[in-house]
Amino acid sequence: MAMIEISHVNKSYGARRVLTDLNITAESGRIIGLLGPNGCGKSTLLKILAGVISDYQGDVRIGGFRPGLQTKGLVSYLPERTYLSGWMRPVDTFDFFADFYPDFDRAKADDMLQRFRLDARQRIKTMSKGMQEKLQLVLVMARQAKVYLLDEPMGGVDPAARSAILDLVLANYQEDAVMILATHLIQDVERIFDHAVIMGFNEVILDEDTDTIRQKYGKSVDEVFREAFKCSLNL
């Protein structure tokens, strides 16, 4: 059984349709790139999987369960925007996560914090956007989850640091888990993907293994994506 099963999912915000008859499956042991331009529904889909959004049509299963209380222990979710209070310090966030999630590995979190050269006692409100994103990534990757959902995890990180961050993600990723990483920075991160789901506006236009994409089209995933959206992105 696939760890994630998404069947005929539709979601609208008022009159605006965001997801249309979406069908995706994801097996454990895979890192999946959820790719698409801003506004195509990537964040909405991750929020549905994380149980943040429940007013959709269709069927979604994580480990056989609908997103909700039974899946909170399976899913580690990194939203696009920070949700941590400005007065908190990394040590406070570690205490917070340890209280909520029995699978939170404090030693792993401490190690990643040091690798990112973050001060454990610096207030979040004094951190740059990139520093805050690194801290949130530490919190998410320190859990022993079955599903990791990362929404634009490197949008505020300088290009020089992205490769090191990806290496850290790979080093701390549970091999029996599935990771879905939503991004539009495809060139920087496609090397870690086993599979790519390319979304157009509210629908999937390509859903294949990355090796298959490269062999079939003779191009990188980033090049295939750019071609698909050449008109809409004015490239």
Strand order of the largest sheet: 5-6-7-3-8-9
Q: Note the beta-strand portion.
A: 25-35%
| Average pLDDT for all residues | 91
Q: Could you list the spans in which at least 5 consecutive residues all have pLDDT below 50?
A: 231-235
Count every helix, treating DSSP H or I runs of 4 or more residues as helices: 9
The largest pleated sheet is described as:
6 strands, mixed
Can you characterise this structure?
There is one protein chain. This protein is 34% helix and 25% strand. The protein is globular and about 45 Å long. Strand 8 and strand 9 form a beta hairpin. It has 235 residues and is α/β, with parallel strands linked by helices. The chain has a six-stranded mixed sheet with strand order 5-6-7-3-8-9, with helices on both faces. A three-stranded antiparallel sheet has the order 2-1-4, with helices on one face. The chain has nine helices and nine strands.
Jot down its keywords.
3-stranded antiparallel beta sheet, 6-stranded mixed beta sheet, single chain
Brief synopsis:
With 235 residues, the chain is of the alpha/beta class.
What is the fold's blueprint, element by element?
Layout: E1 4-13, E2 16-26, E3 30-35, H1 42-50, E4 57-62, E5 75-78, H2 90-100, H3 106-115, H4 129-141, E6 147-151, H5 159-172, E7 178-183, H6 186-189, E8 195-199, E9 204-209, H7 210-217, H8 221-228, H9 230-233
Parallel strand pairs: 3-7, 3-8, 5-6, 6-7
Antiparallel strand pairs: 1-2, 1-4, 8-9
